[in-house]
Design goal:
By secondary structure, the chain is α+β, with helices and mostly antiparallel strands. It has helices spanning 8-27, 53-62, and strands at residues 36-40, 46-49, 68-72. A three-stranded antiparallel sheet has the order 2-1-3, with helices on both faces.
Length: 88
């Protein structure tokens, strides 16, 4: 399968679009706040876990060439170097 090279910005844009239009209402529950949702931007499949590692491994097993992007549920950023993260 031939893949098209996408910029980081385009991967992020597509992931956020999928999240807002298809995933957010399903995952943004109190028990998931702070967890990571990993999204395959080509299929729209996603998985949720505490750090995103298990979700990424799960999606990679399904499609070794998946383009994955992670979003921290309920927050504006996935990680912070300063230790503070702003809630969404």
């Amino acid at each position: 399968m031939q893949s098209i090279l996408l910029s980081r910005e385009e991967v992020a844009r597509r992931a956020r679009e999928i999240y807002e239009n298809s995933i957010r209402q399903q995952v943004e529950l109190q028990e998931n706040i702070g967890k990571m949702v990993i999204i395959d931007i080509e299929t729209g499949e996603y998985a949720v876990d505490k750090t995103g590692i298990e979700s990424a491994l799960y999606l990679r097993k399904k499609n070794a060439f998946a383009r994955l992007f992670g979003i921290r549920i309920g927050y504006k950023v996935a990680a912070s170097f300063s230790g503070e993260m702003e809630r969404d």
